[in-house]
Design brief:
The protein is mainly α. The protein has two domains: 3-51; 66-157. Helix content is 74%, strand content 0%. It contains seven helices and no strands. It has helices at residues 3-11, 15-31, 36-51, 66-70, 73-96, 106-129, 134-157. The model has no long low-confidence stretch (mean pLDDT 87).
Length: 160
């Protein structure tokens, strides 16, 4: 890659990052063949570094907060799936009322897929995060269980 382009790409990173990694990163960019995709990747990484800065020297820092665990896809996807399932059931009740149909409709099938589909995600989350950060993981699991129960409640109490 051109020395000037490598220097400009390196300058996109925050000052503290450049002080720590700048020389090595610029040398890396100069010695390796860089195409348009590599340049876009460097720009994207620089933007991510501004938004989510690297702290410390370790890549795998311990998770110390509930919010950090909740940001994991395997934590928030089951919550989103339960809330979507609940919204679908409540929307169906709001539009059509409490109707006992002989054949299950599309909403019932989608609800079943959403509720069954989150089970392996919750299991993966528990297996992966309970050993690493049990204190932060247990409230997330309780939140996931609460969201699932909230989605199941109208189905159970209204015999849908």
């Amino acid at each position: 890659m051109n020395r000037t382009v490598a220097h400009l790409l390196m300058r996109l990173y925050p000052r503290y990052w450049r002080e720590r990694y700048g020389e090595e990163f610029e040398a890396f960019l100069e010695t390796h063949h860089g195409d348009f995709g590599a340049s876009v990747n460097v720009v994207w990484s620089a933007l991510c570094e501004h938004v989510f800065p690297t702290r410390g020297g370790k890549m795998h820092q311990p998770i110390r907060s509930f919010g950090a665990v909740l940001k994991q896809p395997s934590a928030f996807l089951p919550l989103a799936m339960s809330l979507i399932a609940l919204a679908m059931v409540l929307g169906d009740i709001a539009i059509y009322g409490v109707v006992h149909r002989a054949d299950e409709g599309a909403v019932a099938h989608l609800w079943q897929l959403l509720m069954a589909g989150q089970t392996p995600i919750v299991a993966f989350f528990a297996i992966r995060w309970l050993p690493r950060a049990p204190r932060q993981t247990l409230p997330v699991l309780a939140l996931q269980a609460g969201a699932a129960l909230a989605s199941m409640a109208p189905v159970f109490f209204l015999n849908l």
